[in-house]
TrEMBL record:
Keywords: Glycoprotein, Immunoglobulin domain, Signal. One of its GO terms (biological process) is immune response. This is H-2 class I histocompatibility antigen, TLA(B) alpha chain-like isoform X3. Residues 1-21 form the signal peptide. Residues 194-281 form the Ig-like domain. InterPro entries: Ig-like_dom, Ig-like_dom_sf, Ig-like_fold, Ig/MHC_CS, Ig_C1-set, MHC_class-I_related, MHC_I-like_Ag-recog, MHC_I-like_Ag-recog_sf. It holds the Pfam family C1-set. GO terms for cellular component: external side of plasma membrane; extracellular space. PANTHER family: LOC571647 PROTEIN-RELATED, MHC CLASS I-RELATED.
């Protein structure tokens, strides 16, 4: 019974990995952080991230957003709230004066939109504006109702104030609508095909075993399906590095498996990525 359950769980996980590789996902997130420390002015940072790449950042010295990657000039403008407004909210929530806070506090915000497209044509769109305070969920914005949803008992007073700021809420609704319109027509031209390398070596501690390794690198976007197979069947007893970033913004993944040298059959590295027109089998070991 236990083996049947484990096999069932493995099949579900494998199916979910296949779906992740098949669907196409895009997003843009504007991330804000304000941190107060005792006896210092609050520190503010903000970045815009699209499909795992930072495309903008806010310069505290120059007082405006700076484009990091020129290829993203058509991305939506930053949300309407200013740096000073965000720092004022932190001071209000923290009971800080204009010059100092007596305890450390952090206010965080993520605002943006996401798109998922599935092979059968289904499209999921999501727009959001979410806040966290002192590492707890705080509030989120309902753009249809133009009202705020409290996620924490400490947010009740802030919700009442923000619900009354009808002009600001209208601007936020317009920003989120602009964001979803942009992401719906988004064409990711930055896809990079994976470069796949396969190796085989004797196991160090067991001369009767062989170690097969598949390295996939240089691919973009991040989502990928990669498996080492025996006679077209995925091997589950493998070690994986998980997806890791490269210095150039692309990604890499490494998987290896230890097999018996006496077992006859064909092993291959199966890779499926959105940059490929169809899944590819690399480096057959026999």
């Amino acid at each position: 019974m236990c083996r049947m359950f484990l096999l069932f769980v493995f099949i579900i996980l494998l199916f979910n990995c296949f779906l992740d590789a098949q669907r196409e996902k895009h997003y843009i997130h504007y991330k804000f952080t304000a941190l107060s420390r005792a006896d210092t002015f609050p520190e503010f940072s903000a970045v815009a991230v699209t499909d795992d790449r930072q495309i903008k950042h806010y310069s505290n010295e120059e007082g405006h957003w700076i484009l990091t990657e020129d290829d993203w000039i058509n991305a939506p403008e930053a949300p309407p709230d200013s740096r000073d407004w965000f720092l004022h909210q932190l001071n209000t929530l923290s009971n800080c004066t204009d010059s100092q806070c007596f305890e450390p506090h952090v206010l965080q915000r993520v605002i943006g939109c996401e798109l998922e497209m599935f092979p059968e044509g289904t499209v999921n769109l999501r727009a959001f504006d979410e806040y966290g305070f002192d590492r707890d969920d705080f509030m989120s914005f309902d753009s249809d109702a133009q009202q705020w949803i409290e996620k924490n008992p400490k947010a009740k007073e802030t919700k009442m104030k923000w619900d009354q700021q009808t002009e600001r809420n209208q601007h936020l609704k317009y920003f989120l609508k602009t964001c979803t319109d942009w992401i719906s027509s988004f064409n990711n031209t930055k896809k990079s095909k994976p470069d796949v390398h396969t190796t085989s070596r004797k196991a160090r501690n067991d001369q009767n075993k062989q170690v097969l390794t598949c390295l996939t690198t240089g691919f973009y976007p991040r989502d990928i399906e990669m498996n080492i197979r025996f006679n077209k069947t995925v091997l589950k007893d493998h070690r994986s590095s998980g997806v890791r970033p490269n210095d150039d913004g692309s990604f890499q993944m490494r998987s290896s498996v230890k097999i018996s040298r006496s077992q006859e059959g064909i092993y291959d590295c199966f890779v499926n990525h959105s940059s490929l027109t169809k899944p590819v089998e690399w480096g057959e070991w026999t």
